[in-house]
Design a protein that fits this description.
The chain is mainly alpha-helical. It has helices spanning 2-18, 24-39, 43-66, 71-92, 95-113. The two termini are 26 Å apart.
Length: 122
């Protein structure tokens, strides 16, 4: 479980680095739209997923400011933020969508390990 949290933190770091220049709202919109497409979210699921993405993006921004120069603090904060994000998603997703989401995370991990970057050219 700890390893998964670490991998999520790395993925979030890559995602955050590639989203520079965008507001948390813009990042949340982009991420929630991507999840809507990839997971086939219903209209009822889209708003809570956007809210989870927005909270995640806002917390990443706050953590970036708070832990500037403190890699260990930032790492811990990103892990916690990722766990909170996943917990929020798990309240909204169906069992099939949760399985698909886990597959997507594993694919992203494999791409990062191969040096392929983040999915979708983000």
């Amino acid at each position: 479980m700890g390893m998964l949290a670490l991998l999520l933190a790395i993925g979030n770091f890559v995602f955050a680095q590639q989203q520079d220049g965008k507001t948390p709202e813009e990042r949340a919109t982009d991420h929630s739209q991507k999840l809507t497409q990839e997971l086939g979210l219903t209209a009822d699921q889209q708003k809570p997923v956007y809210n989870a993405c927005l909270q995640h993006a806002q917390q990443m921004e706050a953590d970036r400011a708070k832990y500037k120069g403190d890699k260990e603090g930032m790492k811990t904060a990103r892990q916690q933020n990722s766990q909170n994000f996943d917990a929020s998603l798990n309240k909204v997703l169906t069992a099939d969508q949760k399985t698909k989401y886990e597959q997507i995370k594993q694919e992203e991990k494999a791409k990062r390990e191969q040096g392929g970057g983040h999915r979708g050219g983000e």
